[in-house]
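S1.2 Input.
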Amino acid sequence: MAEGEPVSPNAFSLSVHNTVSSLFSISRQDRTHSTAIAAGEATLEAGFLEACGLLAEAPQASALLVYYDEPLPAFYVGQTDAIQVSAALAMLLRRPQPSSPQDMTLRLSWDTRPRTEACGSAPINSALRLARLLTEAETESEFADGRLTWTWSRHVAGH
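S1.3 Output.
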């Protein structure tokens, strides 16, 4: 539209935030539940909370959490605190089972306190921040999104 070109219905349909989950379910002929969430800087955290809610309703089930984000087009640069690098993360989540003592437990909490120095210099993308927590020695990661301070923590039973 900005270039005076006609709008393609196909281009528009591929621009909505639930496109990826819809195309994935169509290609797999999979009719299971999916939810698309856009929650700004806390989208990964909101997705994790949604997955936990689904697992609370069906304790023996699993939930596939897929997060992706990419930089906005140049037109929007400077208008938001958008991410600067593309990243994606997929995790198959399930509730901890007593029969699996080596399972990693991932926890998320939030607080309304303002951002503190404890938040430190986090990676510039939620997926990178969580990947660092899951793969490095640290067991806790904290960041503030302007409204809430989110704290991820991990624990491996037996360690």
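S1.4 Remarks. The first strand starts at residue 62 and ends at 69.
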